[in-house]
Amino acid sequence: MIKRSGQPWGAGLLGLLRSLGLPRKRFMLIGLFSVIFLMYTFINYSNAIHARLGFGIVSAQAPVDTIPVCISPLGVSPTVPPLNNQLPVQDVIVHTPPPSPSSSPVGNDDGDADKKEAMHPIPHLMEAAEAKWAAMLQRQSSTLDAAVKEYKRRYGMAPPDGFDLWFEYARSNNLKLVDEYDDLMATLAPLRRLGPKEARRRAENMLKFGFEESIGGLVIDAKDGVFSYWKDPKAEEEKRNRKKNKAAKRSLVEMEGEDEGGYRTRGLLRMLEPLKDVLGEKVAEWPAFAIPVNELAEARVVGGDDEKWKAQTDALETKKEKYELDDLWHRHQVAARTLSEDLIHACDANSRYGKMAVGTRFEFGIHEVLGSNGDLKGEGSKAEFVTDPNADNDMCERPELMALHGVHRGTRSTTKGLYPMLSYGHPSAFNDIAIPSRYQWDVDGSYEYYDGDDVAWEEKESKIYWRGEPSGGGHGDQYYGSMHRHRLVALTNPAHFKTSVLVSGASASGALIQSTEPAHIAQTLTNITFSDISSMCEMFGCDLPSIFPFEERNDFSEAWKNKLVIDSDGWGPSGRWRALMASKSTAIRSSIYREWFGERQMPWVHYVPASVGLGELWGLLGFFLGTSESPTHDAEARKIAEQGALWVKEHMRKQDMTIYCFRLVLELNRLFNGEEWVYKG
Fold first, then answer.
1. Angle formed at CA 448 by CA 442 and CA 454, multiple of 5 degrees
2. CATH class of domain segment(s) 447-656
3. pTM of the prediction?
4. What residues does CATH 3.40.50 cover in the chain?
C-alpha cells in the first residue's frame, strides 16, 4: 500500500499496520512502549549533562549526606575518591552538598541564574578578611592589667610567672598583637594535664635516651648561662673520641663550632640571646629544666595519651638504668602505613579520621589523580577557596588529606605518646610545640630576602613561580599522586602532561567567567618545576625526570621576577615563607603545617591561602592573572603583596620572634615546675 500525497503520517502508519493485520489496541501498546523508551533515553542524557553542572556520583553503599562530591576545576568529570579497596557497587546521583565552613565555592550565585550573574567570591573574601584584621588589631590589650584580664578570660587561669616582664619587653619593642597566643596554649594544654612531675620525667627520658634519633635540647638554668644546649653525656664522650680519631662518624646533633649542640637548637639560642639580661634574675628563682628540640624538619610528637600510649609511657618508670630507642620511638617504613595508624590515637578512634584511616586506600600514582583531559581526580579536586586554613588542614576532621599530602607517608620515627618537644611546626594531629625557624631569623642567609634583588611590580611577569626538590614523602616512595609537591608540579604543567585546563576568572564587574584553555596557553601562566636532583636521585626517585619537568637550580631571587609565588611544604614546613611574604610579589600558601605565626597573619589580606589539595589553584590563577575570556585583577594581587610585605615589617621581625620565645619560656617554666609559678601582680 502506497501512502497518498498529503496524507498525515500517523494515519498512513495506522493504515499500514491494519494492512498487516495488527489490531488498534496492540498498536497503542507498541506506541506506549516507544514513548517510555524515548523518555528513559532523554533522562539518562540529562543526568549526564547535569553531572557537569554540579552533580556527582557517589557509592550507594555510603550515606549520601556524608560523602563529599568532588567537582573538578580542571576538567569536566566529577569524581569521588575510593574510600576503600572494595569493588564498586551501584552508583546513584546526588546533588553536590554545600561547601565546608573552611572554604568558599567558585561562584556564589544567590538566585535565579537567568536573573542574577554568579559573582566571583575573591573580592568578597578580601573585603571580609580586611574587616576581621582591623577588628583584631583594635581589640589588643594596651595595658598590663588589660592583658592579664584577657589572659584569664581566654585560658581560665592566671598568666605565668614573669608575665609583667614579658609585657614590658613586648610593648617596648612595639609588639602589636599582644593577646594572640591561642595556638601555643592549645598545644600546651594536653602537656599541662600530665602534671609537672610527669612532663619533666618524659622530657628527661627523651633527652637521655632519644638523643640518637636527632634530638637536641634547650636548657634553662641560671647557673649555665641562662640558656644553653643540652650536653648529652654519650655525645660528649664521642666528641672526645673524635678528637683522637678524626675519622669517627658524627651524628646530626653532634656539630662542632657555632652549631654545636644541634643546628635548630643553636638557631633557637640566637633568638633567646637578647633575653639573658632581661630574664637572668627571674630564671635564677626557677628550678632548672630542659626540653627536647627536634633537629629534623618533620614533626615528631604523636600525642593522644589513650590506653595504648599510656602503657608505653608508664613502662618507662619501671626501667632503672637503660632505655631502648623502641621504648620512646615508633619507626616507620615506606608503605607500612604505621604512621597513619598511629595518628588514630592522636585523633581518637571515634573521629572522622579514626573511622576512615584503617583500610582506606590513600596511595595514588600521579596519573590516577591527573586525568588525560586535565581533570583533577579524587580528593582535593573541589573548586573551593579557603577561608580558614586551620579547618582546611585539620587531619582529624578531614581524613581525605591522607591522599593529598606526604606527611602521612613519612618514614621518620615519631614518639610513642605525648612528649614535650620544640619543633618548627606541626600538623594538627601532632603535638610538637612550635618555635620560630632559624630560616625566618636568617641565621645563615639560606632564604633571606634582599630588596635590591627584587623588581618593581610593573616589571614582574604575570606568572606563578616555584622551584624546589621533590621532597615530602618517604624515601623510595613512588606514589607521587599522594605527595603535595608532586601534585603541585603536575597540576601546573599542562603542556608537559598534555592536558587542557578549565580556568575560572572574573569580569571587570566581578562576574564569574569560566573558560577552557589549551595546554600551551595555560602554561604561559606558570613557571613551576622541580630542580635538579642528579646527586640525590636515590633519595627522591631516579625515575622522576622521566615523569615530571625539571630545570637546573637557580638563585632564590629568580622568584621575584614573577607576580605570584607559591610556598609548599617539604618534609616539614617550608623555610621560605618569610622571604616570600617580604617580597614585592603576592605570596600563596598551601600547607598542612601550623607554625608560630599562623594566627597572627590574615588570609586574603597578607597572603592568598590555597588548599592542601590545590583543587582551586587554577581558579586563583584565572582571577589574578586573567584568562583568554576574562581580564587580570592586577590591583587586587598587588594590594595583597604590599600588605604582606608590610606585615613582615611589623609582625615577623626578629624582635617578634624573640618576644614569642620569651612568652614560651614563661609557659614552659609553669609546665615543668608547677602552677605555683604564676604572675601574682
1. 155
2. alpha beta
3. 0.82
4. 447-656
